[in-house]
Structures are given as C-alpha cells and as structure tokens.
Amino acid sequence: LARAAAGRAAGALAGPAPVRLGDVVPAPEQVLPDPAGHFTLSADAVLQVSAAGRDVAEQLAGWLRPATGFPLPVADTAEGGPLTLTLSPADAAVPSGAVATAASGPVDHARLGDEGYRLDVTAGGVRITAVTPAGLFRGAQTLRQLLPAPIESPTVTAARWAVPGGTIVDRPRFAYRGAMLDVARHFFPVEDVLRVVDHLARYKLNHLHLHLTDDQGWRIAVDSWPRLAEVGGATEVGGGTGGWYTRDDYRRIVAYAARRHVTVVPEIDLPGHTNAALVAYPELAPGKVAPPPYTGTEVGFSFVDPADERTYAFVADVVGEVAALTPGPWLHLGGDEAFKVPADSYRTFVERAQRLVAATGKTVVGWHQLAPAEHVDGRVLQWWGTNGDDPETADAVRRGARLILSPGNHAYLDMKYAPDTPIGNDWAGLIDVRRAYEWDPATHVRGVPAEAVLGVEAPLWTETVTSRAEIEFMLFPRLPAIAELGWSPRETHDWPRFRSRLAAQGPRWTIAGITFHPSPKIPWP
Ligand code: TNX
Question: What is the pLDDT of the chain when averaged over all its residues?
Fold first, then answer.
C-alpha cells in the first residue's frame, strides 16, 4: 500500500498491479519467487557484462532508458553489480548466492543450452546467466516483462521500477519458433519488417520467415535476373505500387534480426505462385507468353515451366543469390498449391529444386506439399493442414523429414478472430486467441513423433493486410499464444493462467504503441 501511494505521488499510473515473478509470456520453465528479495532499479544503476554479452546489455539498456530516464551505462566487467549479465561456459560453477532449492536444484549450465538462461533477483540486484548471448537476450526479455508496464513508455515516466524477487530457470521446448510475414501480397517497407522482428524477439521467437515471392509481387533483388524485382516487384494485391528489397535492404533486415537472435528464413515460392516472375520473364512460362500482372487474391493458377531447362537455370541462380545473402541455415522453396502442375512433373521439379538448394549449402524447407518428393538431408516440411490425419506427411517424416507446425486452423494469423473482424480470411475457420493456444505441436499430426517436430510457426498472409497497424492487429494477441506453445514446457499449458498472463501484456502494448485486437475472452486490465 505504502508503495502504491508512493508511486501515485510520483505521478505513476494509478495502481498498476505489481508484476509477479511468473507473470511472463511465454511461461518460463521454472519460477521460484522470493517475496523478500525484490529489487528496485535506481538512477545510478550500471549494467555489468563480460565482453561477449556486451551487445545484449546495450540492447537491454536501450529498452530501459526511455521510460526510466536513467543513464544505465554498460560496463565491461564480470564483477557483480545491480544488473549483471554473465556468460558462463557450460561447466561453470553455480553463481554464489544463487537460490538452490529442491525444485530447481543447482544451476546446471549444460541444461540451459543455446537459448536458456537463469535470472536471479535479490534485493541487491539482478543477474542473468546464460551459456550464449542468445540465452542472455532471452533472459533480458524476461527481465523487461518483470518491470512494471510503464517501462514500455517511449518517454520518461515516474514509476517505482521494481522487479519481483526470486529465480527463473528457463529454456525453450522447441528449437524452431517462428512467424512468417507475406511481403508479396502487400509489400511492407524495411522499417515495418524490423518492427515485426522486435515483436518476435519480445516473445522469444527465433525465426522470421519472409514469403518473398508470389503471384502479386517479387520482392527481392536478383542480380542475374534483374527484371524479377524491377518488373515483378511493381504490383501488389489491390493495384498498389508494390516494392522490393534491394540486397542492402535485405541485409539490413537480416542483420537487425541477427542482433535480436532471430534467423531470417527466405522463401522463394516454386513452382506455383510465380505469376510475377512470369510477367518479368515470359520465357519461364509454359507457353512462353507473359501473363498479365495479377493483383487479385486467387491461388494456384501460375507455374514456371517444369519441362524447360531454362527454368532450372533460373532456380539455381535465384537460390544461389538468396543463399549467398542469407547467413542462416535455411532456404524455403515453397511448393504449395501448384494446382496446374501434374503430380509427376511437380515431383520431378521439386526434387531438382531441392537438390539445387542443397547445393548452396542450405537446408531445404518447404510447405508440406513437398512431402511426396524424395528426402534430401535435413529437409524440413512446414505443415499447414487443418486435419492432423496426414499419411503423406507422416511418411515423409519416416523417410527423414522434420516438421514445422503451422496448422491452418490454429496458427494462421491471417484468419479472422471472429465473424466481424474487419480484415482477414476464413477458409480455415475463425481463430480466436484461445483456438491459437489450444493445441499441442508435439502430438498434432498423427504418426509424427515429438522428436520429429522442430517447432512452430505462425504465418501472416497479407491479402487483406495493408499496413503496420493491421499487421499488429493480426499478430496480437495470437502471436504470443503461438510463441508460448513453442517455448514453454507442456506442463505449464493452462488456458486460465495463460489468459491472465496475457491480459497483463495489454497495457504494455498500449504504452508501447502496439495495435492489438482486444479479444473479448481476455480479462484485460
Ligand atoms: C494458402 S498456406 C496459401 C497462401 C494463401 C493462404 C491464405 C499456403 C502455403 N498457401 O497462398 O495466402 O492460404 O490463408
């Protein structure tokens, strides 16, 4: 009470409920509150960090400075201070003063893995420990959520910057946690994509899949086939002027994402969804005649000629250039909805295309329509079905494929929330936030064992989505639900609890200026 009164006197928002240690999305693996140990961030705080963690500390300071107005310098030292980020090798000793209880056991750094972290909050300070900078970054995002909501303010706000005491030990359930942005149906400028990366990073997602090509637009510069972007990039759904990313634009997105420990997965959708490429290069079209540019929203009518050798030179050039621009291990070949290509030519085409991708050194990702094709090393299928009974996909998994789960009726962010949602599609049904949350990636497709599931991805198709605000409206609050399915242990899965943790995110989005759909089932404060 005294604390709340002091907060009000200082001009803080009236009575925001103090954050509890477990009030984090996605839910952490282990949470051990220590009500006696809360920490308050003060104006003289310094962030201390060893060299390899410096960039994460700079980003954390960057999130905290605008609202607090504190200088929060970052100091290169491993010494414990009020805010310490420690990178420790897998065999490091338990940090002194760490809370080791029966529930947590001593810190086992080997268990933290590539993205895990430990967060200790005592009256004396906050320490984040991880084995990698990515782990520190995930822990820093948790700390951000443990500060009161006004920490999201872009301008100085008076508040008591308290962090609840205790220990969190956390790591992801699945290695691949992503979202897809379709920049082909509508083009979005680089700044909008960077903002989407920030949204992913906030919820510990680690992959951004960019759907770079489709009937309505080709969005990535290819030097060896320059008309793809110059001609194929000039259209979009509804007749707007479209746009495309230069190599430098794309590099900027990749670098921005990398700093946030997000890997970009570029998709070149083949052999269908290629009208924009055919407009640019009629030689790729089956009849060698350029089709008219397409700005509608039908699918399945276009394809590159699978019978012409020139098509394979095109595929090799494009995937070669995109692979060279992409530091991440993946290259997505699309493969969906090539309705006009007979099954045998489809198969021949994708088998060759898969090998061309493999030759670039990248791992093939493709929509689950690639399933019948022969296996290539490491191949990953992105499953977007609506019925988990899918023998073809299960068979591809038996032959070595792994799966990314994007069930159309749970994870598709372009579906409407409700009948009156002003934008969105509904072919896979309506997806309110509860439907987005109520499924289990590990058991969703029959005959696919949990070990074959690489993770989850929430695609946002943009036939009806035209602006940054509309992107956010479709992402929030469903993206955090999918993020939680990807990150949190199944034992934490619980709708009533998720609902109330999610509700507490609402004021953060409001203060941060993020548009969201105020789902009626969520008890927003
Ligand atoms: C199906 S899902 C598509 C897209 C559409 C989407 C609309 C998939 C691999 N293909 O071309 O944009 O439905 O929901």
Answer: 93
CB–CB of 477/505 below 8 Å?
A: yes
Q: Is 190 in the pocket of ligand 1 (CB under 6 A)?
A: no
Whose C-alpha lies nearest to ligand 1, atom 2? 384
Domains 2-170 and 176-490 share a fold: no
Q: How far apart are the first and last CA of the chain?
A: 19
Q: Kindly state if the Cβ of 301 falls inside 6 Å of ligand 1.
A: no
Average pLDDT over residues 188-211: 98
Which two tokens mark 91? 């065999």
Rounded (5°) CA angle 295-218-474 = 70
pLDDT range class, residue 109, cuts 50, 70, 90: low
Phi and psi at 94, nearest 5°, equal -60, 130
State the ipTM, two decimals: 0.96
In this predicted structure, the answer to whether residue 89 has a pLDDT above a threshold of 90 is no
Share of residues in the chain with pLDDT > 70 (%): 92
- Which residue from 303, 336, 339 has its CB within 8 A of the most atoms of ligand 1, so it is best to mutate? 336
Domain 176-490 classified CATH 3.40.47.10? no
Architecture of domain 2-170: 2-Layer Sandwich (3.30)
Confidence at 78, pLDDT banded by 50, 70, 90:
low
Rounded to the nearest angstrom, the gap between the alpha carbon of residue 18 and the centroid of all alpha carbons in its chain is 28
The answer to whether the CB of 457 is under 6 A from ligand 1 is no
Q: How far is the CA of 345 from the centre of ligand 1 (A)?
A: 22
Torsion on CA atoms 228, 232, 237, 239, rounded to nearest 10 = 160
Residue 79 pLDDT class (50, 70, 90 cuts): low
Show me where the domains of the chain are located.
Answer: 2-170, 176-490
Ligand 1 pocket mutation pick from 299, 333, 465 by most atoms within 8 angstroms of CB: 299
Q: How far, in Å, from the CA of 224 to the mean position of ligand 1?
A: 28
| pTM flag (> 0.90) | yes
